[in-house]
Design goal:
The protein has about 260 residues and is α+β, with helices and mostly antiparallel strands. Helices cover about 45% and strands about 20% of the residues. The strands form 2 sheets. The chain has a 6-stranded antiparallel beta sheet with strand order 5-4-3-8-7-6, sandwiched between helices. The chain has a two-stranded antiparallel ribbon with strand order 1-2. It is globular, with a radius of gyration of 20 Å.
Length: about 260
């Protein structure tokens, strides 16, 4: 076993990533024992790597001896989608100002949507994600829009997966979802109703970049407003067009970063 790992052939990189992923799962401070268990590493290996990560600032140790993600990791993470976020930020803020609802911008990252920017409203709406957070595409309006307007092979690959049910309202039947995506493409927008969290609904439109799908722009509202949320479509489409114009001169690969280039 490499480096005393419980799994044969694990590299140092995979061990470090497993430690960092442990915090993604819990989102709170962890003890060294917690980290070892969640990462699948022997306590001695976890201790050594956690100390190194702490020295580098990627982890921080509290006075209670528990660890959390460090500020340096946050600083590096700000470069993810930075150009898109900086270019779109004024318009996402405008969307919030004009609607009074939580507004966000998201891109595809593998089989999930990654939230690049979000402006929170004051209304009590269950929060399913945050900036830098991810959610499955089939349960979110921004994700459905991306699936509907992305390339055929991306959609086919996604529908061939086992779709996770977050609530009783999540659409997990591939045939039904495929039909819904066709409708979304025809009408130009997507909606959800309590598919990720009870008490919330959402609506989203695509954001294009020189004719290619670049991102999705959406709003999250209380379920009580589900019947009237399409009233925000003119604003959503107008802001989407503004973002498209503002980013037109920036190559898509530069705008999203190599990881998201071509939505691959």
């Amino acid at each position: 076993m490499a480096g005393g790992s419980r799994e044969p052939g694990r590299t140092v990189t995979s061990k470090v990533l497993a430690i960092l992923e442990a915090f993604e799962q819990s989102r709170g401070p962890l003890s060294l024992t917690d980290i070892a268990e969640k990462s699948g590493l022997p306590l001695s290996t976890a201790h050594r790597l956690v100390n190194e990560l702490t020295d580098w600032g990627f982890l921080a140790r509290g006075t209670n001896g528990r660890y959390q993600l460090g500020i340096r990791l946050w600083e590096l993470a700000q470069n993810t989608g930075r150009q898109l976020r900086e270019a779109a930020r004024p318009y996402v803020q405008d969307l919030f100002s004009l609607t009074g609802e939580t507004a966000h911008l998201a891109v595809r990252a593998g089989h999930e949507v990654l939230y690049i920017d979000r402006v929170y409203g004051s209304k009590r709406v269950p929060r399913a994600s945050r900036v830098g957070g991810r959610l499955p595409m089939h349960a979110t309006a921004v994700g459905k829009v991306i699936l509907a307007f992305d390339e055929d092979w991306v959609r086919a690959a996604y529908l061939n997966r086992q779709l996770e049910r977050h609530t009783a309202h999540t659409h997990v039947d591939p045939k039904r979802l495929s039909e819904e995506l066709l409708q979304i493409r025809e009408q130009g927008y997507a909606t959800t109703l309590e598919e990720v969290r009870l008490g919330s609904c959402s609506i989203a439109v695509p954001v294009f970049h020189t004719g290619r799908l670049g991102a999705a722009l959406g709003l999250v509202l209380p379920t009580s407003q589900a019947a009237t949320m399409t009233r925000h479509l003119p604003v959503l489409k107008g802001i989407s067009a503004q973002i498209e114009r503002a980013t037109a001169r920036i190559p898509l690969e530069t705008l999203l970063g190599n990881r998201f280039a071509g939505n691959g």
